[in-house]
Amino acid sequence: MYFSSNIKLLRKRRQRTQDEVALALGMKRSTLSGYENQVAEPGLEALIAIASYYNIALDTLITTDLSSLGEFQLLQLERGHDVFITGSKLRVLTTTVDSSNTENIELVEEKAKAGYTTGFADPDYIRILPAFHLPFLSRNKKYRTFQISGDSMLPIPDASYVTGEYVTDWSFIRNFQPYIILTREEGVVFKIVENRIKEKGMLILHSLNTLYEPYELSINEVREVWRFVHYISSQMPEANRERDTLTETVKQLQKEVKAIQMKLDL
Fold first, then answer.
1. What is the domain extent for residue 14?
2. Angle at 236 between CA 234 and CA 242, to 5 degrees
3. What CA dihedral angle connects 65, 67, 72 and 77, to 10 degrees?
4. Would you give the distance in Å from CA 250 to the centre of its chain?
């Protein structure tokens, strides 16, 4: 059981003294100190009051070693995203942190994507992925970078590195926005997503390259969802030939209209 160590950790993360927490809970400081130092056992009412104060489910507070969680997961719990409280399908992410307990951005290169499909939940596998930090991204969110392949998302070039922010609650997937999705069969895919979870229990995936048709993906096939943040590439995006052609057509029409106006003015 981790109750004692957990309530001490949560109190210190909130930067509260024992006096402040005890006052909020309506108990003596010595009583709270006894709970934190394992010299006293709380009754059911006290357990419920403490869990409510920290907005964490009683089951989590007692049975989960919160000190083993990364900063991202702790922040999610402290914001009320506890699966036992919200009833949502909160996904517990396997992640890594640096020596200062800051979340890493793990890199899943093309050669590692096949292994990631089966090893995404394995701490030993995630630990061997290259990791780095980007100073312009929030430290309070979890990111991961994937190398994409193919031309389905042109003008984003083949072999680009696409970074995504981890999505815990899939009901918040926004329609027609880009996401990186880990699927059971296809592995990692990068697509524009249409959220049809509520109506049909599926996502509809669209490519930027119109040569590729949209297709449906059952939500049961989804393992992870990452919201697109940015991409890095050594290649310049391809020119939009259709747009260039349209621009030239418009210019030609403008010239013709101007010529007609000049004739009418004569």
1. 3-68
2. 155
3. 50
4. 43
Residues 109, 224: one domain? yes
CA dihedral 127, 115, 214, 221 (to 10 degrees): -80
Cα(105)–Cα(165) distance, rounded to whole angstroms?
10
CB 139 within 8 Å of CB 103: yes
Do 132 and 218 lie in a common domain? yes
SS3 173: coil
Burial of 35 (0-12, 13-18, 19+ CB in 10 A): buried
Least confident of 27-31, 174-178, 194-198, 249-253: 249-253
CA dihedral 19, 23, 28, 30 (to 10 degrees): -20
CB atoms within 10 A of CB 144: 26
Pick left, alpha or beta for residue 55 (phi over 0 → left; psi -120 to 50 → alpha; otherwise beta): left
Is it true that the peptide bond before 155 is cis, omega within 30 degrees of 0? yes
Question: Can you tell me which residue has the tokens 């895919």?
Answer: 189
- CATH code (residue 169): 2.10.109.10
CB 53 within 8 A of CB 60: no
Q: How many domains does the chain have?
A: 2
CATH number of domain containing 62: 1.10.260.40
Q: Residue 88: its pLDDT value, please?
A: 47
CA dihedral 96, 100, 102, 104 (to 10 degrees): -40
What's the pLDDT tens digit per position in 96-131? Answer: 999 888 899 999 999 999 999 989 988 899 999 999
Q: Are residues 175 and 227 in the same domain?
A: yes
